[in-house]
Amino acid sequence: MSQAGIIDGKAYAAKLREDVTAEVARLKAEHGLTPGLAVVLVGEDPASQVYVRSKGEQTLAAGMHSETHRLPAETTQAELLSLVERLNDDPAIHGVLVQFPVPDHMSQNTIVAAISPDKDVDGLTVTNAGRLASGLPALTACTPAGCMLLLKDVVGDLRGKRAVVIGRSNLMGKPMAQLLLAADCTVTIAHSRTQDLPAVCREADILVAAVGRPQMVKGDWIKPGAVVIDVGVNRIPKDDGKTRLVGDVDFEEAKAVASAITPVPGGVGPMTIAMLLANTVTAAKRLNGIAD
Ligand code: NAP
C-alpha cells in the first residue's frame, strides 16, 4: 500500500515567515511603516508563557515591533480592558492579541469584544467572524488560515471537493469551515452530537480534525487518497513515564490510506505563529491605507 505524503508544516511556516520578513522590509523602506504586535498574558500558565515568548521572538525576527505585556493573575478585568483600549489607540500597534485562557474571574467574550476589529489578528471578534462568513475581507483566525495555506498548496484546486471539519469551535472549526466554503468546497461540520462520525468522515476528500481527542480518527474513517489535516494537540503517556504529543488522528493508520497528512508535532502547529505575523502585516497595511 502506498504511504501518504507527510506535509512539512515547519518548512511551509519558514517560507511564510520569509515572505513576511521581506514584506516588512518593503513597508519600512517604501512607507516608513513598522508593523507592531502587542501580546497580553495574564497569569502564569506555563504553556501560555511558552507561546507568548515564541510569538515575541518571531515577531522581532521578522523585523517587526513587538510588545509583551505580562500581568499578574489577580489583575482585574477592568485593568485588562483599559490596557486593551490603550493598545487599540496606539498607532505603533497594529495587532492586539490576548493570550487565552484568561483567569476564571474574567470573561473571554468581553475581552474579545474590547479588541478593535482592525487589530484583531486572532480573528476572534464578532466583526471578523461575520466578515468572513459574509465573504468580506477579514482578519481570519491564524490556525485555520494556516491550514488553508497548506491545503491550497497540497490540493491545488479545491473547487467542488467534499470537506469534513470535525469540531465547531469559534477559534478553529467554524472559521475553517467558512474558509473551505469560500474556496468552493462542499462542507460538512461534524461535532460531538454527529451520528456515525466514521461514515461522515469517509465522505471527505479533505478531512480536518480539530477536536482535542488523542488519535480518535482511525484509518478506516478515511477515504483512500484523502488529504488529512490534523489540528489536534494532545499529550499522552509513554512507556517511560514521560509524555508525547499526538494529534486527533491515528497517524500510523491514516498515513497508509490518505494521500497526504500533517504530522503532530510539525504539521499545523508551526503555521499558527507564522500566520499571526502575516495577519499583523495585513492589519498594518489596512490601517495605513496600503493595498493588500
Ligand atoms: P474545542 O473548543 O474544545 O472544540 C472541540 C470541538 O470538538 C467541539 O466542537 C466538540 O463538539 C468537538 N468534539 C468533541 N468530542 C467530539 C467527538 N467525540 N466527536 C466529534 N466531535 C467532538 O477545541 P479547539 O479550540 O477547537 O481545538 C481543537 C484541537 O485543536 C485541540 O486539540 C487544540 O489543542 C488544537 N488546536 C491546535 C492549534 C495549533 O496547532 N496551533 C490551534 C488551535 C487548536 P461540541 O461542539 O459538540 O462540543
Write the layout of secondary structure elements.
Layout: E1 5-6, H1 9-31, E2 36-42, H2 46-61, E3 65-71, H3 77-89, E4 95-98, H4 108-114, H5 126-133, H6 142-155, E5 162-166, H7 173-182, E6 186-190, H8 197-201, E7 206-209, E8 227-230, E9 234-237, E10 243-246, H9 251-254, E11 260-261, H10 269-287
Uncertain spans? none
What gyration radius follows from the Cα positions, in whole Å?
A: 19 Å
**What class, by secondary structure content?**
alpha/beta
Count of structural domains: 2
Strand content bin: 15-25%
Terminus-to-terminus distance: 44 Å
- In sequence order, what are the helices and strands, one letter per element? EHEHEHEHHHEHEHEEEEHEH
Class of the largest domain in CATH? Alpha Beta
The main pleated sheet reads as: 6 strands, parallel
Secondary-structure arrangement, i.e. CATH architecture of the largest domain: 3-Layer(aba) Sandwich
Number of strands: 11
Strand order of the largest sheet: 1-11-8-7-5-6
What is the CATH superfamily label of the largest domain? Answer: NAD(P)-binding Rossmann-like Domain
**Helix content estimate:** 40-55%
**Average pLDDT over all residues:** 97
Task: Name the overall outline.
Answer: globular
Bound molecules: NADP nicotinamide-adenine-dinucleotide phosphate
The DSSP helix count reads 10
CATH fold assignment of the largest domain: Rossmann fold
